[in-house]
């Protein structure tokens, strides 16, 4: 409960690598819009966005190095948000 | 653990570097912040109750009685806004939560004392903004406390400022929630395992999660209403591609879980009071603790039951109606466990226990009438009638309101070092209980007969019961006046209150009265559960 964990400081190299990965994924988002994917276009954009936010959460927000409790708390928040958004689809999809 | 019960030299009341009002509004002591919240929410409760009295006076007879229709619209809106956002949401968690939670955990303060003070300041600023909105611009909002579009986007009354005030109040609520979650995880005394946390604090834990996760959604929704009014974006306007039902989704995604922010701490109060006044350990400790989390989780998935007649899809109605019934399970777990705790107990009917007992009855009536509203088929008939108003007041006032008074009678003598007189407390409680049922049960009957809510005028056949309900409001408010006067007088001038006269086994009863500034003279080591009266050495 009260255990302390050491400060984890990320190297500039690692931060830069993540940043470059985010730029590449941003470029990928733009390129995907030019490919004819039909209804999958939205899913492709959402998938890339999920990977990007995963990278930000893991490295820029340090979640990869935090205790499990914090990861659970983050998951609860994301799950709740997904539930809130998902719940409205019981209405909008079937109107 | 220490069993120090000697009267401290004024405790936290005297032990401060500052003097005057600065010793309060700049204090980071959780007890002072809790009392500041208590004074504010109690003041707003009285304002809200007065407005409620005006509503009942207007409805006492058909046609215009004491005010115009526009004033009536403003009065019921402001009654709702003040009672919901300024009294009942911060009511128990911010006031009694701040007073009691750190001590129940064996901590010297909350995890972030300055954030705690900032949270109070946000509450005070939000309250001032809301009150300012009543007297400036186009006058007091007339939308009802739900601020439904499209009306709230078009009305010329001062909706923008009022919802901005509520937006600020939301941040106060979020910060209190974060503070409590962190305090419960990080600040527990040695030996205070998760299954030794008192159930009041458990309920605040579940509440805090709802505060943190749901409140941002109302903040965004209300900002969207402001942008709609100022910029005319058309987000909720169907003629411009918007969706008014989406507002209702977003509003209730917060506001339904918010009713659990309101009721869960009340349930926690009852879970702490019943075993003490039954002289028996709580029945089903783990299930009560778990059911608080279950209510918080399930309660976050049922918002659509406010929208059965709004034009939501039939699939949505079906799913939300089904999910709503799930909430009844953990609620019933609590009620059965409270009753089982009392079974064969040595029950002592003092003021806190009387309020707690009436909570169980009134909450059960409110909860059961909630099933009628949760089932889509029956809800269609009583939607937007006085049945809903009656149901809501049974759970919110009969539930949280009575729990608030139970908590006040149970804990405040500990903090003031003085006690109220028992007889007026009981007389007040009797009047409140009788007046309450005359007022709100009559409303439920009126609703069944088809009387709509929020209407200024009504058909002659509703006149008799409306008159009865108004008389009920007088009886109830007479009771409230006696209870408040008795508490006020007793806590300031009453007999000294020392030691542990109720015989509680949780940590707050093991320290001096009033509590010292840092609560514990030496860090406590917890060796028994919160309802282990033998372990605590309570006779």
UniProtKB/TrEMBL annotation, chain A:
The name this protein goes by in its record: Cytochrome C oxidase subunit IV family protein
Transmembrane segments: 12-32, 38-60, 72-94
Keyword Membrane tagged: yes
Keywords assigned by UniProt, alphabetized: Cell membrane, Membrane, Transmembrane, Transmembrane helix
Membrane topology: Multi-pass membrane protein
Organism expressing this protein natively: Geomonas propionica
Subcellular location: Cell membrane
InterPro entries xref list: Caa3_sub_IV, Cyt_c_oxidase_su4_prok
NCBIfam families: caa3_sub_IV (TIGR02229)
Stored Pfam families: COX4_pro (PF03626)
Automatic annotation (TrEMBL), chain B:
UniProt pathway annotation: Energy metabolism; oxidative phosphorylation
Keyword Cell membrane assigned: yes
Membrane topology: Multi-pass membrane protein
Name of a matching Pfam family: COX1
Catalyzed chemical reaction(s): 4 Fe(II)-[cytochrome c] + O2 + 8 H(+)(in) = 4 Fe(III)-[cytochrome c] + 2 H2O + 4 H(+)(out)
Domain Cytochrome oxidase subunit I profile intervals: 18-527
Localization per record: Cell membrane; Membrane
InterPro entries hit by this protein: Cyt_c_oxase-like_su1_dom, Cyt_c_oxase-like_su1_sf, Cyt_C_Oxase_1, Cyt_c_Oxase_su1_BS, Cyt_c_oxidase_su1_bac
Keywords: Cell membrane, Copper, Electron transport, Heme, Iron, Membrane, Metal-binding, Respiratory chain, Translocase, Transmembrane, Transmembrane helix, Transport
Transmembrane segments: 35-55, 75-100, 120-139, 159-181, 202-226, 246-270, 282-303, 315-333, 354-377, 392-412, 424-447, 467-488
Enzyme nomenclature, EC number: 7.1.1.9
Protein family: Belongs to the heme-copper respiratory oxidase family.
Function: Cytochrome c oxidase is the component of the respiratory chain that catalyzes the reduction of oxygen to water. Subunits 1-3 form the functional core of the enzyme complex. CO I is the catalytic subunit of the enzyme. Electrons originating in cytochrome c are transferred via the copper A center of subunit 2 and heme A of subunit 1 to the bimetallic center formed by heme A3 and copper B.
PANTHER family in UniProt: CYTOCHROME C OXIDASE SUBUNIT 1
UniProt-recorded name of the protein: Cytochrome c oxidase subunit 1
Organism: Geomonas propionica
